[in-house]
Structure formats: structure tokens, C-alpha cells
Specification:
Layout: E1 19-22, E2 25-27, H1 33-38, H2 44-60, E3 65-69, H3 71-86, E4 100-105, H4 111-114, H5 120-127, E5 134-135, H6 141-145, H7 154-159, E6 162-163, H8 169-174, H9 182-198, H10 206-240, H11 243-256, H12 266-273, H13 278-291, H14 297-311, H15 316-325, H16 336-342, H17 368-377, H18 386-392, E7 397-401, E8 417-424, H19 429-441, E9 445-451, H20 457-462
Parallel strand pairs: 2-9, 3-4, 4-8, 8-9
Antiparallel strand pairs: 1-2, 3-7, 5-6
Helix pairs in contact: 2-3, 5-10, 9-10, 11-13, 13-14, 17-19
């Protein structure tokens, strides 16, 4: 992008491993990790997961407890134990700053990524696209050109890279909120900025003028941030107000509530008939399959036949891939309803403005992955029946205790409840928002999030489509 590649004299390889996206979010950005592990049975990416966790332990001390759910989680946990033996526990002399590590295999919860994210940051990623926190600044060009000040040089501002992270105070406040709550906060921010500018009229003395001038850069930065997020909100609102988005959302709500899950869905038929991008269709068909624990044979055959007729037989390998991974299957034992009830995945009367539960991220659906993280870190007595349901969820489960400072286990460490949740196979921004919400609920109970890739339903499915040159995979 900067056109400097030709100026490099020496080009080498750097083992980057985890990239810090924010103060509590890291990613390996291994785009094909999910496909490699669960489709191609290539587990090399798990080595990088284990290696990065070993480096974290070398810096922050041995993590006393490792909890894993899912087969890839077990592989990583075993690698960590083996690597510590090989290094003779060189990180044992440092007191741990992390209480526990939770390894969650993406296949444990395939429903969450195919649902529509409804947080501000999640919607940006779904509808516009975020790449390593980078926002496509060209979308802000129109706002720059329509700036109040016609003499402002917009050429330079348009070309600047827009990074969306906690360095932007306004973004840090709104990114994890349900999108419905965002316009009200932007309105309040606009009033605060107007009031701050109005202070210049009260500045009479030299000291008062000097004080206002000192605050001016931060006010101008806040104004620019507000303008950016107002533009982004307008783009997203246009999408969320569209009937197509609302129809999709209604379909998803019906599916997670298990309404008419054994029937041919008219919304999917409409998408097929109108030739919508194949990832849009696959997300909905996969969702229906997942909540049904597999489609009835006739329904499965109908959807596969319709997809191949609508998009071509070159997608037959893709359907086979989805079946192999477990995203699109024929009928299996019904366990989703039991899991949903025991772990309170469906929550009625969600307050999207002032949430009290992680289900705000999907307007009534609590991500199973985050609910598991919550279960692993809370008093088990308040989770009646959850232990039995845990066995129904695919993948192995276990807890490993690692010896720490002076041979002591977790009890020997000063009280500090920081949990590192590592998603193997990728996670969504809405799941990140839900974990941040849990961090805010109880003081001292902090979550750090790491993942192999930040993804959404479309980007996940794109990695499973064999011939992407023939796929109109990006949503309009």
C-alpha cells in the first residue's frame, strides 16, 4: 500500500505470532487455521498457538490452570505440557499474573459465527470489513468532502489510515454496545463537544483563553472521531433498516428458538431464487442444520440440490466440506434444546440499551463459547445441570493443573482473577464484546482474549469454499 517494497534490500522471515489488536485482544491471524485443523487434518497451526502461549507464560508466569473444551484444545494443552517439560519449567520462578487459560475449539460452538453480529464493532466487520482494526477510510471520503469548512484540505485526511481501537475514546465506549444503543451516545457526545466549543465565548482573560487553547486539540480530535462514527453509523443504519436484513434477523431468531426448524424455509428459498451470494445462503442453511442437530434426509437433499442447481455443481466439494466439519449434516441426536436450556442461551426481554447479560451481543442469544467461559470461571453451584450438558457438546473436556512458584498450585498465588480465553479456529467481535461485558460486571474478574483469527460467518465459510474464483462470496 505504501509502495516501498522495491526499496527493501534484504527481505527475511519474522516469526510474529500473536499480534496485539488492543489492550485485551490478540490474534495470530492464521486465516486458514480452522480449515486446516478440521478439514485437512493439518495441525501445524496448533504449534503456533502453543508456542505463543509458552511465550506469554515466559513473560507473565506459569498459568496454574488450563481448561480445554474441544479436540484441538486438548492437542494444544498437551503441547504446552510437553514444551514445559522440554524447557525444564524455566517460567516457574515468576508469579503468574494469569489465573487460568481456557482453550475453546471453534467446533464446540459453530452456531455463534453464522449468526449476525449486532454489536457496533461486529456490524462494521460483517457489513464493511475490518482488517487488523483497519477501517476502509475511502468510505469516509464523502463526509470529508461535505465538511462544513469548504477550505479544509480533505485530500490528506482521506488517505489516512483509520484504525478502530481503544485509542479512540468514543470508539472504546461504543464498540461493544448493541447497535441500537449507539445513536443515543453519539447524540450526547455531539452536545458535549458543542458545549466545549461554547466555552470560548466565556474566555475573557488571557489565562482563560490559554486554557481553552490548551483543550482545543482534544476537542478537535473528539469532533473528528464523532464525525467518523456518525458516518459509519449512517452506513450501518441504512443496512439494518433494510427489509432484507430484518428478514434475515427474523429467520435467525426463529431458528435459535427452534421454530419450524424441520421445514423448508421460505426465506432461504427466496435467497436461492434471487441469486444472492452463496455465503448468505450457506450461513442460513448451516444455521438451520446446527439448531436441528442435522437436517432430515429429505430436507438435506432438497437444500443441496437447490444450491447446486442455483450456483453450479462446482460447489459440490464445498457441500462435502461443510458436511465433514459438521456445519451441514443429516439428522443426529437432538441435544441443542437441552444445551440451550441448561446454559441459558436464549434470553427473553433483553435490554439492549443497558444490558444485564451477554445475550445483548446477539439480541437475545448468548454465545455458547462465552457462556462456557463464564461457566468455567464462576461458582458451579449456580449452574444446575450444566455439567451433564457439557458432555453433550462435541469435543473433549478436561482441566490441567500446572505447578507454579515454589511448587505451589493455584491456591499459592496471590488473589488475581485474570482469565485468558483462547479461541482455536477463530472468534467474532461480538464474542469479544460479550467477554468484555463479563469483565465489567465484577471488579477483579478480567478476561483477555486471544484467537487464531478474528472472523465472521462469511469469512469463515469463504475458507471452506474450494474454488473462490467462482464464488461471489462478499455480501452487497
Amino acid at each position: 500500500e505504501l509502495e516501498v517494497y522495491e526499496k527493501f534490500e534484504v527481505i527475511g522471515e519474522y516469526n510474529l505470532l500473536l499480534m496485539l489488536f488492543d489492550y485485551d485482544l490478540m490474534s495470530l491471524e492464521l486465516e486458514l487455521a480452522f480449515r486446516e485443523c478440521h478439514l485437512e487434518e493439518d495441525y501445524s497451526s496448533l504449534f503456533y498457538v502453543a508456542r505463543s502461549l509458552m511465550i506469554l507464560q515466559a513473560i507473565f508466569g506459569t498459568i496454574p490452570k488450563i481448561i480445554y473444551k474441544g479436540n484441538c484444545g486438548k492437542r494444544v494443552a498437551d503441547m504446552i505440557v510437553r514444551m514445559r517439560k522440554e524447557t525444564s519449567g524455566l517460567d516457574d520462578q515468576m508469579k503468574s499474573q494469569i489465573s487460568r487459560l481456557i482453550l475453546i475449539d471453534r467446533t464446540v460452538d459453530l452456531i455463534t459465527p453464522v449468526l449476525s453480529q449486532l454489536t457496533y464493532e461486529g456490524l462494521i466487520d460483517e457489513q464493511i470489513g475490518l482488517k487488523c482494526t483497519k477501517f476502509p477510510s475511502e468510505l469516509l471520503k464523502q463526509r470529508e468532502q461535505e465538511s462544513i469548512n469548504p477550505n479544509e484540505d480533505t485530500q490528506s485526511t482521506v488517505r489516512q489510515t483509520v484504525r478502530l481501537n481503544s485509542g479512540d475514546n468514543l470508539y472504546a465506549e461504543i464498540r461493544d454496545l448493541n447497535f441500537q444503543a449507539v445513536p443515543g451516545i453519539l447524540s450526547r457526545q455531539a452536545k458535549k463537544i458543542s458545549a466545549a466549543y461554547a466555552e470560548r465565548h466565556d474566555a475573557v482573560s488571557v489565562s482563560q483563553i490559554k486554557q481553552f487553547v490548551t483543550k482545543l486539540p482534544s476537542i478537535q480530535a473528539a469532533k473528528k472521531s464523532l464525525a467518523n462514527h456518525t458516518t459509519i453509523t449512517e452506513i450501518l443504519k441504512k443496512i439494518t433498516d433494510d427489509s432484507a436484513f430484518r428478514d434475515k434477523l427474523q429467520f435467525e431468531q426463529e431458528m435459535i428458538a427452534t421454530v419450524d426448524i424441520d421445514k423448508i424455509n421460505p426465506h432461504i428459498e427466496e435467497l436461492l431464487a434471487t441469486g444472492q451470494p452463496i455465503t448468505k445462503v450457506l450461513r442460513l442453511v448451516c444455521l438451520q442444520s446446527l439448531v436441528s442437530n442435522g437436517l432430515k434426509p429429505k430436507l438435506f437433499e432438497f437444500y443441496c440440490k437447490e444450491i447446486l442447481q442455483a450456483y453450479g455443481y462446482e460447489y459440490l466439494p464445498t457441500l462435502i466440506n461443510l458436511e465433514k466439519i459438521g456445519l451441514l449434516t443429516t439428522q443426529q441426536p437432538k441435544v441443542y434444546s437441552s444445551i440451550r436450556k441448561a446454559l441459558r442461551l436464549l434470553v427473553d426481554d433483553v435490554n439492549e440499551q443497558q444490558p444485564t447479560d451477554i445475550s445483548f451481543a446477539y439480541s437475545g442469544y448468548a454465545p455458547l463459547s462465552v457462556r462456557l467461559a463464564q461457566y468455567f470461571t464462576e461458582d458451579k453451584l449456580s449452574w444446575k445441570g450444566a455439567e451433564e450438558v457439557l458432555k453433550m457438546i462435541p469435543g473433549e473436556f478436561n482441566e490441567i493443573t500446572q505447578l507454579t512458584v515454589g511448587g505451589l498450585s493455584e491456591k499459592g498465588i496471590e488473589k488475581n482473577d485474570t482469565t485468558l480465553v483462547f479461541f482455536i479456529g477463530g472468534c467474532t467481535y461480538a464474542e469479544v464484546a460479550a467477554l468484555r461485558f463479563l469483565s465489567k460486571q465484577e471488579e477483579g474478574n478480567d478476561f483477555i482474549i486471544a484467537t487464531t483469527k478474528l472472523l465472521n460467518g462469511s469469512s469463515l465459510l469463504e475458507t471452506l469454499i474450494d474454488d473462490m474464483s467462482k464464488a461471489n462470496a462478499k455480501p452487497h
